[in-house]
Structure formats: structure tokens, C-alpha cells
Amino acid sequence: MADLATLAQHQLVPRHTGARRVVGATFSFIRGYPLGSFGAFVALVLVAMAIVPGVFATHDPDLNALTERYQGVSWTHWMGQDQLGRDQYSRIVYGARTSIVIGFGVVIFTSIVGVVMGATSGYAGGWFDTVLQRLVDVGIALPGLPFIILVVTSLQLMPLVPRLVLSLSILISLGQSRIIRGAALALKQEQYVDAARALGARGRRVVGRHIVPNVFPVVLVSASTLVGSAILIESSLSFLGYGVQPPTASWGRQLNDAREFMVRAPHLAVFPGLAIFFTVYAFNMLGDAIRDKIDPRLRGAR
Questions:
Q1: Which of 275-298 are b and which e, b meaning 16 or more Cβ less than 10 Å from the residue's Cβ?
Q2: Three-class secondary structure of residue 41 per DSSP
């Protein structure tokens, strides 16, 4: 009877569910990495803005009000109005969609290409690694912005956003593959890789089952920081006039349009600049926090 009572008492005690573990891990991450938590919060808000911008926007981003041009911050227009009387806050919200689509598109494409090139090159070694790395050296030596502008202006048959994603991905994936190659070279010396080869596993299987899964933490950390870099480059291209074209909202395009009105309406440049700054900063802080969390050598080094 005592055993039955003890068993019943244990059954009445609630067990830790998956939801509780997620909540506990979330609060632990917030306490241990406040800046990384801030970055994650900003990233989630930006993704939500990109998915449902109408929920966050207060006005039609393309609605002109020429009689209210250059108006400053007010209760109706939280970030003022631009040279056409459009609500700048709403345009920044819709501009987040452009930045997030390009940023995440570049990261996905770059991660795939970088992992394939880096893991294959690092594991294969020999002449294949030498030839591929010399090609990577040539690609890295190319001037960034001129190369991107060349690709964007050459592929006129493609829509603009895929052109931007493709050009940015080609340039960034070369450096990404070099990072993945370094991790693959280290993993190649591990005992479980030697054991897999001793059991007769072919190179493709070793790379797919043992190398690629173990370089995923490196890819994850790099991806979180690459989002910010891609957004910054896209904003630079839009500022130069080679990015997203009007009337599509873009932070870089807003900065470009604000150049002529810096004295008359400085808020036209301040708020898009702050949007770019906090976005890049947030993704960099998130990447640093993920790196510190994943790498046990960095725990407690803060």
C-alpha cells in the first residue's frame, strides 16, 4: 500500500513539459545575454514587420500629401513626413520588408553555397582544395560594390530583388566558404571521422553525416551576423541608386532622397539611419550571443 501511495503521489507531481523548458531556457538566455536578447527582440519585430507591415503601419506608405511636406514629428506622424508628404514611419515599416527579404535571402543562399564549398574543399584537400581556394582568393580580391553593381546592372531580365540577392550572395559566400573550410579541416582530424572512414564510408557520406552537421554552429553564428551585413550593403546600394527603386520603400533610398533636405528637414535622414543602425547592431549582438552560448570555451568570458 505504501508503494502504491508513493507512486500515486509521484504521478500527481507535474513534470517539466517542453513548454516549461523553452520558457526556462528563454529566461536563462535573457539573464545571461541581455544584449543578445535585445538583438533577438529587434529581429523578431523586424520579421513581424516584414510579414504583416499593415499591422504596424499607421498610414498608407505611398499616400502623397503635398500640402504637408517636410512636416516634423507629431502625434499623427510619429517620424514626420517626407518631401512628398508621405508618412515616414509607415515607409520605414514597409522598408523593413525589403531589408529582411534581401537579408534572409542572402543568408540562406550564402549558407548553402558556403557549406558545400567549404566542407567539400576542407575534407577533400589536395589539388581540389588548392584550385578551389585560389578561385576563392580571386573572388575575395574583387572590389565589393563595383562587382555587385556590375551584376545588378547586367542581369536586367531578372527582377531586381533576386538580382540583389544573387550578387550579394556570390560575393559573401566566398568568405563564408573560407570559414567553413577552416572548421572542416579541424573536424577532419577527429577520431569519429577516422572511424567512419575505417568502416568504409565514402567521402560524400562522411561530409554529409559527420562534417556538415558539426559545422552548423559556425554557420548559425555567421548567418546571424551576415543578415546585418547584407542589410547594410543593400542600404548602401539603394543610397547609390542601384537598389530598390521608387516607389518601393527602402531605408537606403530614403537616405538618398533625404540628402537634398538635410538642413530643411533633418528628420528625413535621422530615422532611416537609426533604423539601419539598430538593425545591424541587433543582428551583430544576437550573433555574438549565439557564439558565446554555443562555444563552451567562451562561457564565462564576458
A1: bbeebbebbbbbbbbbbbbeeeee
A2: helix
What domains, with CATH codes, occur in the chain? Answer: 16-298 (1.10.3720.10)
Q: pLDDT 10s per residue in the chain (302 long)? A: 445 444 444 444 455 566 777 677 777 778 888 888 888 898 899 889 889 988 998 888 888 888 888 888 888 888 888 888 899 999 999 988 888 888 888 888 888 888 888 888 888 888 888 888 888 888 888 777 788 888 888 887 788 888 888 888 888 888 888 888 888 888 888 787 778 778 777 878 888 887 888 888 778 878 877 888 888 888 888 888 787 877 788 888 888 888 888 888 888 888 988 998 888 888 888 888 887 777 655 454 44
| Neighbour-count burial of 204, counting CB atoms closer than 10 A to its CB (0-12 exposed, 13-18 middle, 19+ buried) | exposed
Continuous segment of H or E residues that includes residue 10: helix 2-12
